[in-house]
Write a structure and sequence with these properties.
Blueprint lengths: L1 E3 L1 E3 L2 E3 L6 E6 L4 E7 L3 H19 L3 H17 L1 H12 L3 H18 L2 H4 L3 E7 L2 E9 L2 E5 L7 H12 L3 E5 L6 H12 L7 E3 L4 H9 L3 E7 L2 H13 L3 E5 L4 E5 L5 H13 L9 E6 L2 H16 L19 H17 L2 E4 L18 E4 L6 H4 L6 E4 L5 H10 L2 E2 L1 E5 L3 H10 L4 E4 L15 E2 L2 E2 L6 H7 L1 E9 L17
Parallel strand pairs: 1-5, 8-9, 8-11, 9-10, 11-12, 13-14, 13-19, 14-17, 16-17, 19-20
Antiparallel strand pairs: 2-3, 4-5, 6-7, 7-23, 12-22, 15-16, 18-21
Helix pairs in contact: 2-4, 2-7, 3-4, 4-6, 10-11
Bound molecules: nicotinamide-adenine-dinucleotide.
Keywords: NAD, Oxidoreductase
Protein name: methylmalonate-semialdehyde dehydrogenase (CoA acylating)
EC number: 1.2.1.27
Length: 498
């Protein structure tokens, strides 16, 4: 059986803790590999390695660092098909969707190729008599990323590409459920010319995460995962004096106004609600039709579409979506469907009974659709993270606007309308971090920033785009005066730029 170790000092090394976790192949339900779970000592060894390598990398001029990133982009494109298949077989999502996972990460590596420009500081000549001021951005040193199972290529690249381009060394702790692609990405960075020790992959669970949180040489942590863990990481990292940004779970609403193009909205809801079996932090999990007529017409169109979703293996090119990541994930989602029924929601389509012929042990679930969900229900308040769409009927626009605004989560939201005025008002007022107007999954492009609000994001800077350069650097500001500018004696009050 394949075994996955760690990637430390520029090569894969075996785990020594004696602890491992199973990596499943969700489409068959088989265990396909074992991944090593790092001990504190293994994490520490990776940090020491990174710390030793980092100063020389920081001293490498930014154009050379950018060239490594350019080569990495080329190598990922070369290996695109193999990476996508490996990803699909470990995660469960379909191969075309796995390609999207890789592509949206690679776009951030492309963004990081602009590092010579992105890291430029500021300069003011003559800020006072004979005084010039300038600022510079310097890397933090060793930084870490802790990432979730659902985007095993994209989110690691969102983290390590800008961090490394800035001159940091990076410790990646990917999800233990699908570590294969992160390990391959580290190999490709070495092939692209990255010095050994600058990108390390330490596989593991809570033990490795706690070691990262307490390590005195890790200066910053970028986390993505569920909200309770995001909050835990945020609090513990702060307690240890680390810079930290933590992105959590979601409950993304799509508002369907009476004037919306209903066919376009239904297409959007089906793709965004059920793509990747609903295991996306930007999946639409709540549809909010405005007015009874809109709601009735929407349900009439949605039901047959959900009933005819094509569930297939991860390597079936015609499948709409594949299996979920684990059997526990399937049981958890089924549990929420039971809860929804008990809470009084109308289960319009029930995906619980779905069986995949020839793959009876795989982690499959059909698409489910709830109508008449209300805001006091657990299936509305909590993240289900599966192929389940809940319809909450709103009587008017004000009620529809209030639903996502008052929800605990605030990752993404969308409005479907032909009315520019309503769309503009919605974008201005909704209390959510990322907004789509007739766009169901408004994941900002790499040179903008990604981040949710409320329980979906802890910390003040977003991922990728200009915020990522700020997050992975510290600013130093220099005020200088040369002897020819020194005219007066000692000053005892606070200096003013007179
Ligand atoms: P998770 O919180 O279970 O795990 C995320 C990471 O934390 C993993 O690396 C895992 O090993 C580690 N971890 C898990 N339990 C831990 C514990 N008790 N102590 C310390 N570390 C622990 O999340 P997941 O199931 O891998 O991913 C799905 C979640 O991620 C969903 O909630 C989804 O909405 C969220 N997500 C958010 C975004 C975003 O940008 N906001 C993006 C993708 C996924």
């Amino acid at each position: 059986m394949r075994s996955v170790g760690h990637f430390i000092g520029g090569k894969e090394v075996k785990g020594t803790s004696g602890r491992t976790a199973d990596i499943f192949e969700p489409m068959t339900g088989d265990v396909q590999a074992k991944v090593a779970l790092a001990s504190r000592a293994e994490l520490r060894a990776a940090v020491e390695n990174a710390k030793a390598a980092q100063p020389a990398w920081a001293a490498t001029n930014p154009q050379r660092r950018a060239r490594v990133m350019m080569k990495f982009v080329e190598l990922v494109q070369r290996d695109y098909d193999q990476l996508a298949e490996l990803l699909a077989r470990e995660h469960g999502k379909t191969v075309p969707d796995a390609k999207g996972d890789i592509q949206r990460g690679l776009e951030v590596a492309e963004f990081a190729c602009g590092i010579p420009h992105l890291m430029k500081g500021e300069y003011t000549e003559g800020a006072g008599p004979g005084i010039d001021i300038y600022s510079m951005r310097q890397p933090l040193g060793v930084v870490a990323g802790i990432t979730p199972f659902n985007f095993p290529a994209m989110i690691p690249m969102w983290k390590f590409a800008p961090a490394i381009a800035c001159g940091n060394a990076f410790i990646l702790k990917p999800s233990e459920r699908d570590p294969g692609v992160p390990m391959r990405l580290a190999e490709l960075m070495i092939e692209a010319g990255l010095p050994a020790g600058i990108l390390n992959v330490v596989n593991g669970d809570k033990e490795a995460v706690d070691a990262i949180l307490e390590d005195p040489d890790i200066m910053a942590i970028g986390f993505v995962g569920s909200s309770p863990i995001a909050q835990y990481i945020y609090e513990r990292a702060a307690a240890h004096g680390k810079r930290c940004q933590c992105f959590g779970g979601a409950k993304n609403h799509a508002i369907i106004m009476p004037d919306a193009d209903l066919d376009q909205a239904v297409d959007a809801l089906i793709g965004a609600g059920y793509g990747s079996a609903g295991e996306r932090c930007m999946a639409v999990s709540v549809a909010v039709p405005v007015g009874k007529t809109t709601a009735d017409r929407l349900m009439e169109k949605l039901i047959p579409r959900v009933e005819s979703l094509k569930i297939g293996t991860s390597i079936d090119p015609s499948a709409d979506f594949g299996p979920l990541v684990t059997r526990e994930a399937v049981e958890k989602v089924k549990g929420y469907i039971d809860i929804g029924i008990k809470e009084g929601a109308t289960l319009a389509v029930d995906g619980r009974g779905f069986k995949m012929q020839g793959y009876e042990n795989g982690f499959y679930l059909g698409g489910s659709l709830f109508d008449n969900v209300t805001k006091d229900m657990r299936i509305y308040k909590e993240e289900i993270f599966g192929p389940v769409l809940s319809v909450v009927r709103a009587k008017d626009y004000a009620e529809a606007l209030a639903l996502p605004s008052e929800h605990d989560y605030g990752n993404g939201v969308a409005i479907f309308t032909r009315d520019g005025d309503a769309a503009r008002d919605f974008a201005a007022k909704v209390n959510v971090g990322m907004v789509g107007i007739n766009v169901p999954i408004p994941v900002p492009i790499a040179y903008y920033t990604f981040g949710g609000w409320k329980k979906s994001g802890f910390g003040d800077l977003n991922q990728h785009g200009p915020d990522s350069i700020r997050f992975y650097t510290k600013t130093k500001t220099v005020t200088s005066r040369w002897p020819s500018g020194v005219k007066e004696g000692a000053e005892f009050s606070i200096p003013l730029m007179k």
